[in-house]
Amino acid sequence: MNSGEKGRAALWFLYPACLAAVVAALYLFTLYPGVGGETDTAKWQFVGKVLGMPHITGYPLYVLVNHVFSFLPVGTLAWRINFMSAFFAVLAVVLLQRILRGLLNSELLALGGALVLAVSPMFWTFAVAAGVYSLNAFFICLVMYLLFKWADARRGRPAGGREGRGYFYAACFAYALSLGNHVTMITMLPALVIFALATDWRAVLSMKTMLLSLLFVMLLAGLYIFPFIQTAMPSPYLENRVRTFDDLWRLLTATGFRQYLFAGGTTGLVEMQLPFYISQVSAQFTFFSLLLIMAGLLVLGWEHGRKLAFVATFLGANLCMALNYYVSHAQLQYQFIPSYVFLALVIGMVPGAANALAPHMDRGTRRMFSGAALLVLVGLAGLLVEGNIAKIQAKQREMALNEKLANDVIEALPKDGVILANSYNDSMIFMYKMVGERRESEKRWRVLHDTSWRITRVEPDPTHMTDGRTVYDLSAVERLMRGEKVDWSPLSLEEGGPIRHAVYFSSGDKPLLDRAGYTSEAVDLPGNGTGENCYGGRTIRLYRITGQVTPR
pTM for the whole thing? Predict the structure, then answer.
């Protein structure tokens, strides 16, 4: 390489480096500052620190990587794990730029799609909050980048050559690892196999590939030995216990959630799921982007048919699973995040439309056309930033108030105090404080998960006039008051002996506990300075159970 080529190589390096710097600055500016945020954020903020086991499917790789990031010598534990999401989100965005660079043969034009992905609302949200999705997006982009580099190295080469096989083996290794983070990556397998066979079937069927594949499978199996270790330790937080291979199988196959797969049939798919997905895509990239997606698909197919087949196969398999998962739309929207990576890639192909029209354009016109298309994508990214940054900053303020509320409640608890969590979100926030920050070492307080003390069931209506009535089992509260042992699940706690706990709850549960015959007194909290017990727009009241009378 002569000095001129070296200079150009150094110059081209500036594009991904500058992209990484800009996106990292944006994410750090909007990073959630404290505990909580999205559905499972508080859980992800402590589960790695204690090497705990979250909900199915266990996410062993994520837990281990999370554990490493928990030792960063900056910020609070919550901030460090939020930063972990930002770190892998930036890597995913840079990798997408590198993929587009190979497809468009231009460093500059490749910036458009990468910027659009970086600031799309859902991707941005999980780039600044703890969760598994940024790492999943990183693996999607990494596997795709390595596979495309291998295909480019093989282009025009004789069949059976070894050019670029290192990229192929690296892609297989990354893919095996990715399954330890999010098992929905299994939907990439058909696309990977078809693309690999079409690129160089001899490489795929070689003895070396077979042996390496076996090694990678063993690596993945090793990751899923970790749940046995977590259970045996035991970790202080276990949502599942894995003692047998049957337990492991139930963990991996998401027993309890399988009932929601394909539950709506064709009618549900057409009338509910597909319209919801289209609305979500419009929310991520604006309605105008639907036209850009169609244009990008045409360009990708015109220039890179085999790579379009890979994208379409993975996107189709992933959406087939996601769209047939019949849960609430609030939960379902997270299942679409992998598809946004591919749609951003397709949108990013639009500046390459000039290549398809090259025979009808001179060089100057092509450059103007490509530059205009890039400006459209940059403008789209700007609109997304403008529309989302205020929402994320409002969420930052909400997180700061969550942190203060949790700390104030803990300060109000005496030794042996127990807080009855009012909701799933409250449960995770207080467990973060108890297990992650080890605030229980200051004084022996506990948190009881909302579903562990407020057990619900529906009693049928014998007249068949209604669907029945909800009945609450509060026996755990009575056992706490009597000093008996309770099931702290998912916490792994051992009590040294009978302990009469002081039991506290929030105002949202006062009507329920009043009806159950519990008497209580209010406990004042400092609040945020604007009024007693006031935290932003919410007024939170804490109560201590003082006794029990005959239920009304």
Answer: 0.90
pLDDT in tens, 391-448: 888 888 888 888 888 888 888 888 888 999 988 888 999 999 988 887 655 667 889 9
Number of folded domains that form the chain: 2
User: At residue 213, what is the residue type?
Assistant: S
Same domain, 317 and 436: no
In a domain, 535, yes or no: yes
Which domain does 136 fall in, by range?
Answer: 3-395
In a domain, 400, yes or no: no
pLDDT digits (tens, 9 = 90+) for 256-269: 677 777 777 888 88
Residue 113's CB is within 10 A of a number of other CB atoms, namely 31
Please give the Cα distance from 501 to 517 (Å, whole number): 18
Distance between CA 146 and CA 404 in Å, rounded? Answer: 45
Q: Are strands 518-523 and 534-535 parallel, antiparallel or unpaired?
A: unpaired
Write the pLDDT tens digit of every residue in 492-541.
Answer: 877 666 678 889 998 889 999 998 889 999 888 887 766 677 887 778 88
506 phi and psi angles, rounded to 5 deg: -95, 165
* C-alpha–C-alpha distance, residues 176 and 165, integer Å: 17
Joined together, the tokens standing for residue 359 give 């025979």
Tell the residue number behind the tokens 């309605």, with chain if given. 287
